[in-house]
Write a structure and sequence with these properties.
The structure holds 2 protein chains of 2 kinds. By secondary structure, chain A is mostly helical. Chain A is 75% helix and 0% strand. Chain B is mainly alpha-helical.
Chain lengths: 96, 198
């Protein structure tokens, strides 16, 4: 029974729950927009990293280089899409 | 077909390794797909028109239930893959079964939430904000729905054929898909719900 629950997985699961609870502080306390977004950004990124490296086994793949290049490229395109859109549609000229 | 016994079953043939890499390429495209939906949402989040804003309709309890359920399902499918690697077919099937049940619970809560929104007069046609919200959440929910069908089919196949290089490969790829949906949800949870309730 014990071998069905490897310690890293259990730790990963508990930390993901903890990170979700930490993220809740932005709702429960009256924080500034910037500090709230920072907390959300950090907890979300750590959570995503946990999933990628612990559960999705990114590191053990033989084609690790092509895999990492692919993810990095996808993230680059994704981030440019999001921040490029925000820049063009909101920040660039609409200062409401 | 050359089977390399030094590797876990899902990586044991060249075809299997290429399929896993290929699936990562697909996940890369999915990252970009969800990025475009997030970009639209962030652009339109304040365009509420005569409809309600996020802070009026979002409720913490169902969102927390969804988050905990989805995180747990990500954990159980991870345990399922671990069980598969030590050859425990029955445990693997149990963990996959639990994962699918949790996925169905998630979907049930999300649908209930959508129904509540609509009853409060927040439909997909009410405002630009709600259109982008329902598109983002709905695309994620549609992925989960598809995952339930896909996962059930794989579970059925594992039961029928046992753990072979093919079924192990399919199961592993499905686990990647499921973890990815969890990652997308984390960003929805943080930057749609919590940000909206801030």
């Amino acid at each position: 029974m014990k071998q069905l629950f490897p310690v890293p997985h259990v730790i990963g699961f508990v930390s993901s729950l903890l990170l979700s609870l930490i993220a809740l502080v932005v709702v429960k306390f009256d924080l500034t927009f910037a500090s709230g977004m920072t907390i959300l950004g950090v907890t979300a990124l750590v959570q995503a990293g946990l999933q990628l490296f612990l559960f999705m086994h990114v590191n053990e793949n033989e084609d690790k280089r092509s895999l990492m290049t692919n993810i990095a490229y996808a993230l680059f395109v994704g981030l440019v899409t999001i921040f490029g859109t925000l820049f063009a549609m909101l920040w660039g000229y609409n200062m409401i | 077909m050359k089977i390399d016994h030094a590797k876990p079953l899902e990586y044991s043939t060249e075809e299997n390794r290429l399929k896993i890499l290929g699936f990562w390429v697909f996940l890369g495209a999915e990252i970009v797909l969800f990025s475009t939906l997030f970009a639209v949402y962030f652009t339109l989040v304040n365009r509420t028109g005569n409809g309600p804003a996020g802070s009026h309709i979002f409720e913490l309890t169902p969102v927390m239930v969804e988050t905990i359920v989805l995180l747990s399902s990500s954990f159980t499918i991870g345990l399922g893959i671990h069980a598969m690697r030590i050859g425990a077919k029955k445990a693997m099937m149990t963990f996959f079964g639990i994962t699918l049940v949790l996925g169905a619970v998630f979907l049930g809560v999300e649908i209930t939430e959508f129904v509540t929104y609509v009853h409060e007069g927040a439909t997909i046609q009410t405002s630009a904000f709600l259109s982008s919200l329902f598109t983002l959440l709905g695309t994620h929910g549609a992925h989960v729905t598809f995952g339930l069908l896909w996962g059930s089919a794989i579970l059925f196949q594992v039961k029928k054929r046992g753990l072979t290089p093919e079924t192990a490969n399919k199961s592993f790829i499905f686990s990647l898909y499921w973890h990815f949906l969890d990652v997308v949800w984390i960003f929805i949870f943080s930057f749609v719900y919590l940000k909206g309730m801030m």
